[in-house]
Specification:
Helix content is about 65%, strand content about 0%. With about 220 residues, the chain is mainly α. Pfam families: Adenine_glyco (PF03352).
Length: about 220
């Protein structure tokens, strides 16, 4: 289907084209992903992991304490951190003491270090992955990382400025209503169907994927 009716419906709901444009997510500029330190990628991954299934505001309010407790999230340190350090963190009242999520830090640090070893930095790795294959990147993060399946990886990419969609409940509702996805929730086939829809809309409009995603979410009463 054409994206125009979705766009027009979203603009009406948000008070017009100009008002809606002001609500679009920010996309990293040229060289910005590469310039970001690998520690910042591990930090943002961990933030999204801890937010999953939890009150986001609590994690945001405590994030400076997370930064202190995890000593700035340096991947080279955390990839080989001794088990006793994780055990101490599980008692640290500055953070949310969820051992399963704490254990994701060394696992995701190893993923970042491995990618940086091959590409120069994790940001360089992300920058060379095209938005028309976000499905492939999400599957890569799920396979090589820890607790980066589903929405956590999508929000991580959005937070660092990588141009991609988020399959929020509103976006999924529109995709289903328009008959663009019909595979089982959480399946690889459903993710690929969503990618195909966004690729088609991108070719039609020339808009960034993250803007398309936000506009779709605005087009539905929730």
């Amino acid at each position: 289907m054409s994206f125009a009716p979705i766009h027009d419906r979203a603009a009406r709901r948000k008070g017009g084209e100009t008002a809606m444009a002001a609500l679009m997510p920010r996309i990293a500029g040229p060289g910005e992903l590469e310039a970001r330190g690998d520690d910042r990628y591990l930090s943002e991954m961990t933030r999204c992991v801890f937010k999953a299934g939890f009150v986001w505001r609590v994690i945001e309010n405590k994030w400076s304490d997370f930064e202190a407790a995890f000593q700035g999230f340096v991947p080279l340190y955390w990839q080989q951190v001794p088990p006793e350090v994780l055990e101490e963190l599980a008692k640290d009242e500055r953070i949310v003491r969820n051992m399963q999520k704490i254990r994701t830090v060394p696992e995701n640090a190893r993923m970042i270090v491995d990618a940086a070893r091959e590409h120069g930095s994790f940001g360089a790795f992300l920058s060379q992955w095209p938005s028309d294959d976000q499905a492939g990147l999400l599957l890569w993060l799920k396979r090589h990382g820890s607790r980066l399946g589903g929405a956590s990886a999508q929000y991580f990419l959005r937070r660092v400025g990588w141009d991609g969609f988020i399959l929020s409940p509103d976006v999924v509702t529109v995709l289903e209503r328009e008959g663009l996805v019909d595979a089982s929730p959480g399946s690889k086939k459903r993710l690929i169907q969503a990618q195909e829809a966004f690729n088609r809309w991108h070719r039609e409009t020339g808009l960034p994927y993250s803007h398309l995603s936000r506009i779709v979410s605005f087009s539905i009463d929730s």
